[in-house]
Amino acid sequence: MGTSTHPYHHRCWLLNFVLKTIWMFLFLFSRKDLKVIISINNLKRSHWINMDILLQALHSRGHNITIVRSDKSWYIKDKSTYYRSFTVEVKRSLDQKYITELVSKAILFERGALPLTNFLHMTLGMFSTFVDAHMAVGEFVSAMLSDQELMRTLRDSKFDLVLTDPCWGGGVILAKYLNLPLVYNVRWLIAGEAHLAIAPSPLSYIPITGSGNTDKMTFFQRVKNVFLHLVTQTQHHLVVRQVYQKICDKYLGPDNDYHQLMLDADIWLMRVDFVFEFPRPTMPNAVYMGGFQCKPAKRLLSTSLVNFNVVAVWRETNNEVSM
């Protein structure tokens, strides 16, 4: 057996990984005034809502938040009471029509209203647009890193960590460029889901998110599971090769592999409740925070219920109930 595959070396690697994760947790939770930088090009609305709630919570605990944003951001305001921002000028932005159509079709597929063949046809047909969307993100990252004055300001600010959405590749590259710890906010990658990337995940027993399968699959369901995984992996690697790896080669050096940088995140905040997940391997740096968006319900004023009547009519058609 070669030296690199000896069980002792695997145990040493795992021990080093666990100790590093524990150190990161102690560092983050012991500090009362963290300086956090967030790299955002143009998050989809759901991703920004998710990030925004987290930023407000960090600000309420005395941490300092800085956002690097595109001048064509859809939802991220230039001025805010709980963060300061740096704006990077870019020539183009993500196609909002494409994002809306893609999300709508994905929801229909997950609800079973869109056949697998139609979904795959849509995915393959829109792949060039998918790459183009990440090309726009890549242009934002290049413009940001090429701005020497901005980079000097960010270095002099002495941030403690980079908080980013792994669905887009800018934060990963910025963290490496500034040599800062990297924290992810959601479970999604460029294409696919995080667990399949960070831990061994046998596809015969672990369903692809959105496939509709359970952990007990028939032969054909397993074939479907593997096929969907291959589609997302192909998308991921093609986008990385065509967009983000080129940026890494230019600004970080040819020895930096984007895929490895992505997997080297220090902490991964998984916005998912593990109670509703099927059993699967995970890693020590994955923190499950399902329900963090929930807030205490506001008490209704008694006056608002005066003379308020509700009439509900229920109808059952084709085994479906509607109101």
Automatic annotation (TrEMBL):
Gene3D superfamilies: Glycogen Phosphorylase B (3.40.50.2000). It comes from the Eukaryota. Keywords: Glycosyltransferase, Membrane, Transferase, Transmembrane, Transmembrane helix. The chain crosses the membrane at residues 12-30. InterPro entries: UDP-glycosyltransferase, UDP_glucos_trans. One of its GO terms (molecular function) is UDP-glycosyltransferase activity. Belongs to the UDP-glycosyltransferase family. This is UDP glucuronosyltransferase 5 family, polypeptide D1. It comes from Mola mola (Ocean sunfish).
